[in-house]
Every structure is written in structure tokens, then in C-alpha cells.
Specification:
Helix content is 40%, strand content 20%. The protein is of the alpha+beta class and 372 residues long. β5 and β6 form a beta hairpin.
Length: 372
């Protein structure tokens, strides 16, 4: 009689109800057609309400296991309430049932169920978006890897070592080398604004611009001027990148250095001295006609230079402070027997790759040494 009265009460409020008189039948009805909500009496013949809920919550079908359940109980004690909740009930109503309270509890659980389903759909959409983003980043990573030189150039009497560590799959740093018309080797490095796919597109553009500039110009200053003009014609002043290049004559060891807003070039002399050549021009893309000034240096046997991006400075973390170019210069090992040893030595001190700390910025570095 209580069940029939309850069904009539709920039906009059717009709910479609099914009812049964014991727990086993309830589980059969639930699996035959999943309800939006379950009203379950605590005391029933056969399986009681707690046992039905335990089986329901352990069901292999998540849709069944997550059906909201309100327990109806004639026991008004705290112990009975605790047993209801421990069994997996979402809520409970004590008999005699107040119709208004029951409707409010039902509406609350149905709203929560609707919100949970909406959240699940949003999570599915987010997961799909994440998968699509990772797929795009993987494709961008392959593209960028094809742009970054994988092997050092064959330059008799010289050693070249390089390192590239993006924050994520792709980054905004890039470097390269190319043969100039007069036979010199142009080593260059650039750092675009931002991270991720957008910055990676800038690196693609940077490589194209440096190659195009080297074809039409015979000095590093004119190459930088050409890159700046092309970069600015594309973006206006809405984007910029820092860059530095050094045109090296492999026969004489004489080199011309030009920097645009980039960290200083560091030189390690075999004699033990360290030199730093700062960028004089502003970053590429900021102004229309910057002045690019070349600095001439001579590299003797055993001398080396280091091109790098600001990711090598690291970032303040705990007791660690951000490095300065002067501190980096002191880390150069003048007695390094190869370009690779020189590069690994400064990386181990300034940006150790321990697999724990995430890089604060993309990092690229290029070491060139004249073999002794």
C-alpha cells in the first residue's frame, strides 16, 4: 500500500515510476531498463536496501553503478543514517515520508545527475581536444626536427656541437649554419617570442629568411638586415625575435659577429681568457632600419665560441637565481678538449638535464671550436 501511494504521489508530479516488492527484482528491473533515480526501502524481503546498493555500486556498467539512489527508512537513528550512506546511498528520507521533502530530494539528485553527465561530456570533449592538440604538436615536432640540423657540418679543422631542448614538443628557438658566397660559414641562432606551435612557426620562417638572406648578401650585417626587413614586412611590429650570427673563415679563423637583441656571444680562449660580444642592434622586427654593426674576432687553435638562447640562463627557483652572461662566461671550460665537451660542461652547470625540473624556457646552444 505504501508503494502504491508513493507511485501515485510521484506520478501526479510528472514522474514515470516502476515498482517492485523485493531487492532481487529491483536489480533485474534496473538492468532491463536503467532508471534516472532509485527510491529504495531499507527493509525489504530477501536482499535489503543496503545489500541492493552494494551490488549496484559494484556493477561493471558505470551507468548502472552511478544511478542516484535515495534510501527510505523508518529508522530515525544516526546509526541507520550512517548505514544508508555507507551502503552507497546519495541521500535518505525518514518515514513517515513528507511529500515536499521527497520531491526536493529527488529534484536535487536529478540535477546532480544531469550536471555529472554534462561534466562527463565536457571531459570527453576536453580529452578529444587534448588528443587533437597532441597530434598537432607531434606533427609540428617532426616538422621542426627536420629544420634543425641533426649532424654538424663537415668543416676541416673545426668542431661543432649543438643542443636543443624545447619546453614542450616544439619551441621557439632554432639554429643553423650555411655556406656563404665568399666561402665563409655562417653560424646563426634565433629565439622567437612565445612557446608552442605559434613559436615553432616563427622558427620555420626564421630558417627560410636566413637562407634567403644569405643567398643575396655577402656579409652577416646585410644578412641580418635582410632578415629584419622580411620579418617586419610580414608581421609589421607585432612580433619580434632575437638573433645572432657569426661568419667564420675556416682557413684563417677570422670571424664577423652581429647580434640583434640576443644574449652575448661567449668566447673561450685556449690561453684561459674569456671574451663576451654583446648585441648592439635591437631584436629583429621591432624597427624599420636598425644599424647592424659587425665585430671582428680571430680564433686561434684551441679557441671556441658559444651561441645560445636565454633558456641557458635558467630561472629563479628556491635558492637558485637566474644566471647572468658574466656567470655563464665563468662556467666555460677553456681546457675542454672538444666542442662537445665544452658544450656539455656548461649545460651540466647551467641547465642540468636531470629529468625532474621542467625548463622555464626553450634552450638552444651551439659550440664551435678550432681544433688544436
Amino acid at each position: 500500500m505504501s508503494r502504491k501511494i508513493l507511485v501515485q504521489l510521484l506520478a501526479s508530479n510528472g514522474y514515470e515510476c516502476r515498482e517492485c516488492d523485493e531487492g532481487t527484482k529491483a536489480l533485474e528491473l534496473i538492468h532491463a531498463k536503467q532508471p534516472s533515480l532509485l527510491l529504495l526501502d531499507f527493509d525489504m524481503p530477501g536482499l535489503n536496501g543496503a545489500e541492493v546498493l552494494k551490488r549496484l555500486r559494484s556493477d561493471s556498467n558505470p551507468a548502472v553503478a552511478q544511478i542516484p539512489a535515495i534510501m527510505l527508512t523508518g529508522h530515525g537513528s544516526e546509526e541507520s543514517e550512517v548505514r544508508c550512506l555507507q551502503a552507497g546511498a546519495d541521500d535518505f528520507v525518514t518515514k513517515p515520508i513528507n511529500a515536499a521533502v521527497l520531491r526536493a530530494r529527488i529534484e536535487t539528485q536529478l540535477r546532480l545527475r544531469s550536471m555529472r553527465r554534462q561534466l562527463e561530456r565536457q571531459n570527453d570533449e576536453l580529452e578529444e581536444w587534448r588528443y587533437s592538440l597532441e597530434r598537432d604538436l607531434a606533427a609540428a615536432r617532426l616538422t621542426q626536427q627536420s629544420l634543425i640540423p641533426q649532424k654538424p657540418p663537415k668543416l676541416p679543422g673545426w668542431e661543432v656541437a649543438a643542443c636543443y631542448r624545447p619546453v614542450i614538443q616544439v619551441g621557439g628557438d632554432i639554429y643553423g649554419w650555411l655556406q656563404m658566397k665568399d666561402g665563409r660559414m655562417l653560424f646563426w641562432i634565433a629565439d622567437g617570442t612565445g612557446h608552442g606551435a605559434a613559436a615553432a612557426l616563427l622558427t620555420t620562417l626564421a630558417k627560410l629568411l636566413f637562407h634567403h638572406g644569405s643567398v643575396e648578401n655577402d656579409t652577416p650585417a646585410r644578412v641580418m638586415e635582410a632578415v629584419n626587413n622580411d620579418f617586419r614586412s610580414i608581421f609589421g611590429a607585432r612580433s619580434f625575435m632575437t638573433a645572432m650570427c657569426i661568419a667564420l673563415d675556416p682557413l684563417t679563423g677570422r670571424a664577423s659577429v652581429v647580434g640583434a637583441g640576443h644574449p652575448p656571444l661567449l668566447m673561450a680562449r685556449r690561453s684561459g681568457g674569456t671574451e663576451s660580444i654583446a648585441s648592439i642592434a635591437p631584436p629583429l622586427g621591432l624597427i624599420e632600419h636598425p644599424r647592424f654593426t659587425e665585430t671582428i674576432v680571430d680564433l686561434n687553435l684551441g679557441d671556441a665560441f658559444l651561441l645560445y638562447t636565454d633558456g641557458l640562463f635558467g630561472a629563479a627557483k628556491g635558492d637558485r637565481v637566474r644566471l647572468t652572461p658574466e656567470q655563464l662566461a665563468k662556467m666555460l671550460n677553456h681546457s675542454a678538449t672538444s666542442a662537445d665537451a665544452l658544450l656539455r660542461g656548461i649545460l651540466n652547470q647551467a641547465a642540468p638535464d636531470n629529468g625532474k625540473d621542467t625548463l622555464p624556457d626553450d634552450l638552444a646552444a651551439l659550440a664551435v671550436r678550432r681544433a688544436a
